[in-house]
Amino acid sequence: MSAAKLPSSPSLSLSRGVGVTLQPGQARTLRVPAAGLLRVTHGALWVTRRGARAQPAPDDVYVAAGQPLALHAGESVVIEPIHLGCAPARQVAPAVFCWQPATGRCAGALRAFADRLGAWLHGAHVGA
User: pTM for the whole thing?
Assistant: First the structure.
């Protein structure tokens, strides 16, 4: 898989299996066409989610290399590189990620898992 440099556009189209590199200071909006996984392969991303489903407020998530993030069809997310947990905030490295759409039976299982996880996380935020 090769990494592709992004144009300066704030919006980004997702292509299966294509590595995308975001440089420090670059933020991009992703409009998720179908359920799938965003996989960070290098660095870390700060992801702000606003789903297709009604949510009271956007959700912020830290995703480090090796961690997949399940996304729903219709979701709109803003992503940007962030410093790794062990590095000072001023040392932000480029982040590389790829997109893998869910297919067949896995798509339904992924949606169900993401729904349950989202409900659990929302309940944890409400109770905190």
Answer: 0.63
